[in-house]
Amino acid sequence: MDAFINFELHDNSFLLTAGRSIFWEDEKTLILSDLHLGKAGHFRKAGIAIPQTIFKEDMHRLISQLQYFKPSRLLIVGDLFHSTDNKEHELFLKWRNDLSGIDIHLVKGNHDILSDDWYKKAGIETFKHDLVISNFVFSHDIETCNSHADHYCFSGHIHPGIRMRGLGKQSIQLPCFYFGEKYAVLPAFGKFTGTYPVDPQPGDRIFALVSGNIMKIQ
């Protein structure tokens, strides 16, 4: 198993990472989806004791990848945040001030409900439905990709997972990257999320994430 896997798609070079992101080498862009920052804080506000270490772990992993790849752009394919403003959003703003030189583009997901003024204060450029770059379109939900049939689509939203089976009827569902003929679905970057099982078809390519590594399944 590896920490990175080289992946060629439509004459472009991508690195799939065990850190749940994709580095698009041609565009110097780090791509990820579904961080759901503030989700732990949202639960705590509701009286459910979720540790803040979850938020810190996700942010540490993100900062580490930004420092490693040194992208000129961070592209988030929806659900950067989970809900309304809470303490974790303020911690994000402090982090953002330290890395103000990186452009952040957010294709809004169904959970990105903060005000336009908040995103502006955070230095985040938002896109309501999709963002087209070169031969690719980026959209939170694959349903939106249908309006760009001539582009390959990167999406998120469903938090894809692949079921792995072993001896003795053991099984485990792992987060994964899913690449179909016309679209890809990224794993949720935030670890405080579930997974939805994908049903790969012949020709699809699946890369599972396990124990800090990434491996090709088919």
Explained architecture:
- By secondary structure, the chain is α/β, with parallel strands linked by helices.
- It has one domain: Purple Acid Phosphatase, chain A, domain 2 (4-Layer Sandwich), CATH 3.60.21.
- The chain has 4 helices and 16 strands.
- The strands form 2 sheets. Strands 8, 9, 10, 11, 12, 13, 14, 15 and 16 form a 9-stranded mixed beta sheet that branches.
- A hairpin with a 3-residue loop joins strand 12 and strand 13.
- The longest helix is centred in the first third of the chain and has 17 residues.
- It is globular and about 50 Å long.
- It starts with a strand and ends with a strand.
Encode the helix/strand succession as letters: EEEEHHEHEHEEEEEEEEEE
The appropriate CATH architecture is 4-Layer Sandwich
Structural class: alpha/beta
Find the CATH topology.
Purple Acid Phosphatase, chain A, domain 2
The Cα radius of gyration reads 17 Å
- Percent helix, as a range, is 10-25%
Number of domains: 1
Q: Kindly provide the name of the CATH class.
A: Alpha Beta
Shape: globular
- The end-to-end span amounts to 14 Å
User: Average pLDDT across residues?
Assistant: 85
Query: Segments where pLDDT lies below 50 for 5+ residues?
Result: 40-51
Major sheet description:
9 strands, mixed
Our estimate of the beta-strand percent is 25-35%
Number of DSSP helical runs: 4
Work out the number of β strands.
Answer: 16
